[in-house]
Amino acid sequence: MPIISFEGPVLTKEQKAELAAKLTKATHEVLPQMPENAFIVVIKESSPDNVAVGGKLLSER
Questions:
Q1: Where are the beta strands (DSSP E) in 1-61?
Q2: Which residue(s) pair with 4 in the sheet?
Q3: Strand partners, 57
Q4: Closest C-alpha to 22, from 4, 9, 34
Q5: In a 10 Å sphere around its CB, with 0-12 CB exposed, 13-18 middle and 19+ buried, how is residue 41 labelled?
Q6: Residue (of 55, 26, 17, 35) closest to 43 by Cα position
Q7: Cα separation of 42 and 48, whole Å?
Q8: φ/ψ (deg, to 5) at 54
Q9: What is the pLDDT of residues 29-52, one digit of tens each?
Q10: Is residue 61 packed enough to be buried (19+ CB in 10 Å), middle (13-18) or exposed (0-12)?
Q11: Could you tell me the CA-to-CA distances from 11 to 20, 49, 56 in Å, in that order?
Q12: Which of 20, 21, 37, 57 is the most exposed place for a label (fewest CB within 10 A)?
């Protein structure tokens, strides 16, 4: 089973559902031999206090 991993900001339940559906559909289009129900989507959320770019927390940018 292919695993699709997404790391990003905190999302609503609705956003997670939409993201999972669209990632699954797009990957299935590239790998049509795999049924859509074979794909696993893992969403890892990080608050802006837990991510830094260029040495600055996103919450401080």
A1: 3-8, 40-45, 52-53, 56-57
A2: 41
A3: 52
A4: 4
A5: middle
A6: 17
A7: 19
A8: 60, 30
A9: 999 999 999 999 999 999 999 999
A10: exposed
A11: 12, 15, 22
A12: 37
The percentage of residues in the chain with a pLDDT greater than 70, rounded to a whole number, is 100
**What residues does 41 pair with on adjacent strands?**
4
Question: Which class is 3-60 in CATH?
Answer: alpha beta
Q: Which residues of 3-32 are buried (b: 16+ CB within 10 A; e: fewer)?
A: eeeeeeeeeeeeeeeebbeebbeebbeeee
Structure tokens at 52: 């830094």
